[in-house]
Write a structure and sequence with these properties.
Elements lengths: L5 H16 L2 H13 L3 E10 L5 E12 L3 E3 L1 H11 L2 H21 L5 E5 L2 H4 L4 H11 L7 E6 L7 H14 L2 E7 L8 H4 L4 E4 L11 H17 L2 E4 L5 H9 L4 E2 L8 E2 H9 L15
Parallel strand pairs: 2-4, 4-5, 5-6, 6-7, 7-8, 8-9
Antiparallel strand pairs: 1-2, 1-9, 1-10, 2-3
The structure holds ligand C2E and magnesium ion (3 copies).
């Protein structure tokens, strides 16, 4: 079976296992080479309004396809990049791609907020804000079209310095989102004192919807908190219409998930979703979404 489906398929599945088996050092070496050899790409997953079905933004997600290793999952290489420090170079590259793409979409008539995941180590670089500022200027992107996704663990780092950096970014007009909300830090005091614009409910709380009482209670509480604090709420990892319906009943603002689409290459995202007149402009009405 493998044989008659041709070499392409064979080399897609088999090596994916190899990536896990490869030593850290070799994988790290392959990762550095991959950036130079342009084997990384940034894909985009839409964020959809649960009220209108409109696409309001997109999350930039890094993809690595290697001729020898096949598709290497971010769950595997991001932690490695964080541990080795390579995430500083890799993250800067992602940010540049995303800002460039956002500027392109804006000039083509569909301004969309693009969210970029930023690891703690990147965020802690003393010149982080300066680099973001420069990038926005070079690509003439209004800061309001860039959103930075951080995890709650950022709040555990040198609190005052991080606070100041968050305020500087917010001062620029860049939005700040807390990713995987509910899985990390338990002290919520930062929500009222820091300029946080969005909470992304971790997909582990979405999975049990609409039946799991605990998940319902947690999502309801996060939505309520968002409303009271004027912070937008996005549900991550929505895969079924039943989950989406539960989120609508709970008045959650937006969702992201395979129910709409996984992350797509930039050109495909634009063709299918963002381009004025594209089929999925009302994502809720589309059978895919
Ligand atoms: P994340 O930021 O929480 O991103 C959401 C993850 O959920 C993505 O996995 C996405 O593909 C996946 N996802 C989206 N919809 C669904 C769904 O309906 N069901 C399920 N089961 N999963 C869904 P991905 O792309 O594998 O990325 C994993 C993590 O790697 C991300 O989690 C993020 O923390 C990190 N990551 C990805 N790209 C970057 C990047 O450019 N920079 C940094 N620092 N981290 C990144
Ligand atoms: Mg994210
Ligand atoms: Mg993340
Ligand atoms: Mg997340």
């Amino acid at each position: 079976r493998v044989k008659d489906r041709g070499r392409g398929n064979y080399s897609f599945y088999q090596p994916q296992m190899n990536a896990h088996l490869l030593s850290r050092m070799k994988l790290e070496h392959a990762m550095r080479q991959a950036l130079a050899a342009q084997r990384f790409a940034v894909h985009y997953q839409p964020q959809v309004s649960l009220a209108t079905g409109g696409i309001t933004g997109a999350e930039a997600l890094l993809r690595w396809t290697d001729p020898e290793l096949g598709t290497v999952s971010p769950g595997l290489f991001i932690p490695l990049a964080e541990e080795s420090g390579f995430i500083i170079v890799l993250g800067a590259w992602v940010m540049e791609q995303a800002v460039r793409e956002a500027a392109k979409w804006m000039h083509a008539g569909h301004p969309l907020v693009i969210s970029v995941n930023v690891s703690t180590l990147e965020f802690r670089q003393p010149d982080f804000v300066e680099r973001v500022t420069r990038l926005l200027a070079v690509h003439q992107l209004p800061p309001a079209l860039l959103e930075i996704e951080l995890t709650e663990s950022i709040m555990l780092q040198d609190a005052l310095e991080m606070e100041e950096r968050l305020r500087e970014l917010a001062g620029l007009g860049v939005s700040l989102a807390i990713d995987d909300f509910g899985t990390g830090y338990s002290n919520l005091a930062y929500l009222k004192k820091l300029p946080i614009h969005k909470l992304k409910i971790d997909q582990s709380f979405i999975r049990g919807l609409p039946d799991d009482e605990g998940d319902l209670a947690i999502v309801r509480a996060i939505v309520g908190m968002g409303q009271a604090l004027h912070i937008e709420v996005v549900a991550e990892g929505v895969e079924t219409t039943a989950q989406r319906a539960a989120l609508q009943r709970l008045h959650c603002g937006h969702f992201q998930g395979f129910l709409c689409t996984p992350a797509l290459p930039a050109t495909e995202f634009w063709q299918k979703l963002a381009r004025p007149g594209a089929a999925m402009q009302d994502a809720l009405a589309d059978p895919l979404c």
